[in-house]
TrEMBL record:
Organism: uncultured Rubellimicrobium sp
TM annotation in the entry: 43-67, 79-101, 113-134
Membrane topology: Multi-pass membrane protein
Family of this protein: Belongs to the ABC-3 integral membrane protein family.
Organismal lineage: Bacteria, Pseudomonadati, Pseudomonadota, Alphaproteobacteria, Rhodobacterales
Protein name per Swiss-Prot or TrEMBL: Mn-Zn_transporter_SitD
Cross-referenced Gene3D superfamilies: ABC transporter involved in vitamin B12 uptake, BtuC (1.10.3470.10)
Signal peptide: 1-19
Pfam families (UniProt xref): ABC-3
Cellular component terms (Gene Ontology): ATP-binding cassette (ABC) transporter complex
Length: 147
């Protein structure tokens, strides 16, 4: 139910959220109330965090709130590409982390699996490190332009 509520609010407030988040002056000039929109975004993030903490725990929530968006930001400057790429990176981290947690120790000769949440966080962190070390922004010399 939390997911559906968040998706619904994001769908309804998509344009005001983008304007308030990236150009507060423009949002005010067009009659929007960016402070209110920002508060709505914070409330949505808090609701997602609370629901996720109850479901999966702190380590994975913090890792998935930070690593996929940061990785996507290192790979592209376009907002909607970042959003979709972040979701893809999160799904890849979850899938690969889950598989490695269950089968990785067995492949290495161990008899027990490791924490899935911890392994998912590790995979997300490794993807972020790879983007930071080898991504397209690694060799840029000019300052980044605002998105």
């Amino acid at each position: 139910t939390v997911l559906l509520a968040i998706v619904l609010v994001l769908a309804l407030l998509r344009r005001p959220l983008v304007a308030a988040t990236f150009d507060e002056g423009f949002a005010r000039a067009t009659g929007q109330r960016p402070t209110l929109t920002g508060l709505a975004l914070v409330a949505l993030s808090a609701a997602a965090a609370v629901a996720a903490f109850d479901a999966v725990g702190a380590i994975i929530v913090i890792a998935m709130f930070t690593c996929p968006p940061a990785t996507a930001r290192l790979l592209t400057d376009r907002l909607w590409t970042q959003v979709w790429l972040s979701a893809l990176i999160a799904a890849l981290s979850a899938t690969l982390g889950y598989v490695l947690a269950g089968y990785g120790p067995l492949w290495l000769g161990g008899q027990h699996s490791v924490s899935a949440a911890g392994m998912i966080a590790v995979v997300a962190g490794l993807l972020l490190a790879m983007a930071a070390l080898f991504g397209p922004r690694r060799h840029r010399r000019e300052p980044l332009s605002p998105a």
